[in-house]
Amino acid sequence: MGLRRYHEVRGWLFVAPYLVYVLTFFLFPMIWSLLLAWTDWNLISPVKEWAGLDNFREALRSPHVHAAFVNTYRLMAVFVPVALVWSLGLALLLDRLPRGSNLYSVGYFLPYLASGVAIALVTKGIVAYNSPINAFLRERLDLDVAWLQHPTLALVIIALLIAWKFSGYFGLILLAGLRGIPRELYDAAELDGATGWQKLRFITIPMLYPAVTSVLILAVALCFGVFTEPYILTKGGPGMATHTWHLEIYNQAFTSFRAGYASAVAILSALATFGTIGVVRWILQKWGNRYDPI
Amino acid sequence: MTRSRRKWLSVGLLYATATVALLVAVFPYAYLLLQSLAPWDQVDRRWIPTSLSLRSYLWLLAGGEAALPRPWLRAFLNSFIVSLADTAASLIVGMMAGYALSKLRFRGARAVYNFLLFHMFYPGILLLVPTFLIVKSLGLYNTYWAMILPKAVHLWVIFMYTNFFMRVPQELLDAARADGASEWTILWRIAAPLTGGLTTILGLFVFTERWAELLWDLLAVRDERLMTLNVLLASMQGPYGTFPGPLYAAAALLTLPIVLIFLVFSRRFLDGVSYIFR
Predict the structure, then answer these.
(1) How big is the A-B interface in CB pairs under 8 Å?
(2) pLDDT digits (tens, 9 = 90+) for B238-258
(3) C-beta separation of A170 from A87 below 8 A
(4) Considering only alpha carbons, which residue of chain A is nearest residue B131?
(5) ipTM of the assembly?
(6) For the segment B182-224, what is each residue's pLDDT rounded down to a tens digit?
(7) Measuring CA to CA, which residue among B172, B180, B197 is closest to residue B103?
(8) Which residues in A19-137 belong to E strands, given as ranges?
(9) A287 Cα to chain B: minimum distance (Å)
(10) Is this prediction's pTM over 0.90?
(11) Which of B126, B79, B101, B144 is nearest to A17 (CA)?
(12) Residues 242..281 of A with a Cβ closer than 8 Å to B: which?
């Protein structure tokens, strides 16, 4: 009996560090944030006024929130296809290289290690007024491009930076998927006289479906958490063209000190995230059924 | 003859494409390094500087003739302390929890595991403001602890260890149990060494992620002497705008250590990656 009790307690002791963390840095803040959203607290004043639905009403009308909402999908429209095609290309290359694929894998993964701050700095330098690119465009083509002051261009640049960062990471996920496809399938197809394209279309892509699904969901989710790149490069501008959910929450909470309002915006952003991921999963499932996985 | 020629051609094309992709991957790193070594009148004006100079690094470390001296080395050290502390903590907490959830059958283990999954998918941004308030009310604001504690547990690490230990055969542990070893000893002497490759790769991921963190560290401290290199670099873009060279040097200091660590462990990384992405 005593021994049994001891066994029970021992298990809980081993997970205790995690549970302490959960209490302090998850459950407690979780409840707090859900409560804060209904107040108009400013981080400093001792008074917390109950605000009811005011924060949510204001947020739903706010042009900043609208911009963050819309920009997430604009970002996604560039980032997801570019990252998917690029990483798929890398995975297929790595799978086909007869030798040295390890060396290339390591190289392709390097972008994931970069700090967003450092890479944003490089980007700033490359598009600086006197940079080689701009000097060339100005002198040879008489073009004056203000890269980061152009609403669409700035957004595309940020999307490409994130795609650059994650393509190798996604590529390795897809490569693991590719390597999991049984060789016999290809051998059988070859016996039937399938062309390279047919093998890609009817074996590789359907068999890669689970890996592609995880990459796509990861990529979509990432778009809701963009912060570093626009924070350094554009501060959300020009206008609100590169404003994001995380920028808005950060600005409201720590520049305007509107903790309650920021919590309401955070809740809306979480709803948008789950809603979007839900839709993406649903689409992927429908699409997956068509392939009738073996 | 033509057949083998075509084969050579396609292999050559394969390597050419792979190499171009490699160049795209390393281009920003190369640019960063070259600009940090360029004479100041050439920074951002030439792809490849005509001569190399260490002026940017010397200026950075000495504090510079014109501008305020900045604690760059200190910031570098701060990044290191914070990242290392969080990596170590994440791995230790992760191993303990993972071992308990998979190998110590206790009532509630299933519930804790399910809770972990819920926790993993809960959007962290919702916790940002209240976590800041908690850190503040614990009196930790503007200390190392403010940066370390909220990121000292990594849920994905617990998840990976739970699934790893699940597949460690029970007999291996039972032999030690028969010898009277405690679960604590078994975890660190028998189970932990089995995780070698996995631990390397989890450590690399956690360290990298922590090293590049901006948002939280931006909030957690105000004192320049406590700032991580990432935060210092982000906050220095204004006043240092006229000194792009040193900024590149700082960015190189920020980037190169992590690349070097990664290259040292790259062999184990590749083994590990095929495990975790499978």
Answers:
(1) 246
(2) 555 567 888 888 889 889 888
(3) yes
(4) A29
(5) 0.86
(6) 888 888 988 888 888 889 889 999 999 999 888 899 889 988 8
(7) B172
(8) none
(9) 22
(10) no
(11) B101
(12) 245-246, 249-250, 253-254, 259, 262-263, 266-267, 269-270, 273-274
